[in-house]
Amino acid sequence: MLRLYLVRHGQTAWNATGRIQGHSDVPLDEVGLRQAQQVARWLGERVKKPVAIYTSDLARASQTAEAIAQQVGASVAHVPDLRERFWGAWEGLTTEEIQTRYPDHHFTYLYDPLNGTPPEAEPMNDFWARVRDFHHRLRTEHTEGELILVGHGGSLRILLCETLLGNVHTYRRIRLDNTSVSIVEHTHERAWVALLNFIEHLQDPSVDGF
After folding, report:
1. In the structure, how many helices (H) and strands (E) does the chain have?
2. What is the pTM of this model?
3. What is the topology classification, in CATH, of domain 2-203?
C-alpha cells in the first residue's frame, strides 16, 4: 500500500489577514513556524520510514517541509507543480478588496469557478491538470511506502478530489487548515481518504514559541 500524508503549510502574515497568496512567496510568521514544529513532531512520532518528502517550492511550504524533514529524517524534493494556483491580479488582496476592485470578475468566479478566471490568473483547468499530472507521476514512481506531501490549500484539495473522483464543486467544499494533515491511501485496486484536516497536534503545548 502507498500512504500519502498531505500537509498544508503553516500560517503566514497573509493568511492571518485574509490575503490571497498564490505564487507570492510569503514566509511563515511566528505562529506558522510553531505550527510547523508541532506538525513535524506529530509526524515524527508516526511516520518512521518515509520514502521522501515532496514540497511546493514556495517558502511557506518549504519551511514547513524542512521542519518535518528534521523530525523524520527524509530528503526533501522541491516541486513547482505543488504550488498554489497563480491568482494574477488578485494576489495580495483580501476578499473585500477584490469585491471593490473587480466586482464583475468576483461575481463570475463565485458562480462559475471553473471558467471565471481572475485577471491574469492561471485558469482552473490548467491548475488542476498541473497537480493531477504530478499525482499520476508520483503514483507511477511509488507503489508502496509512505510519502509526505507539503502543499497549499488549493493543490492539496485537488489531490483529495482526484482520490474522491470529485470536481471543482467538491474542491470548494473541502476545508484544510494551516498544517492540517490529511491521509490518502492507495492499493492496486482502489484509493480512499483515511483522514481529513486533522489538527489536534496544534494543541501540543510542549512546542516552544519563536
Report:
1. 8, 6
2. 0.95
3. Rossmann fold (3.40.50)
Share of the chain above pLDDT 70, in %: 99
70 phi and psi angles, rounded to 5 deg: -65, -30
Angstrom distance (rounded) from CA 160 to CA 193: 7
State residue 209's pLDDT score: 55
Domain ranges of the chain: 2-203
Judge whether residue 39 has pLDDT over 80. Answer: yes
Q: What residue type is 58 in one-letter code?
A: L
Alpha helix ranges (H) inside the chain? 13-17, 30-46, 59-72, 95-101, 103-111, 124-141, 153-164, 168-171
Give the confidence band of 206 by pLDDT, cuts at 50, 70, 90. confident
| Mean pLDDT of all residues in 40-50 | 90
> Given this model, what pLDDT does residue 49 score?
81
So which residues are the catalytic ones?
9, 84
Secondary structure of residue 204 in the 3-state scheme: coil
> How many angstroms separate the CA atoms of 87 and 22, rounded?
5
- Count the neighbouring beta carbons within 10 Å of the beta carbon of residue 151: 29
Chain centroid, CA 54 distance in Å = 11
Which 3 state secondary structure label does DSSP give 173?
coil
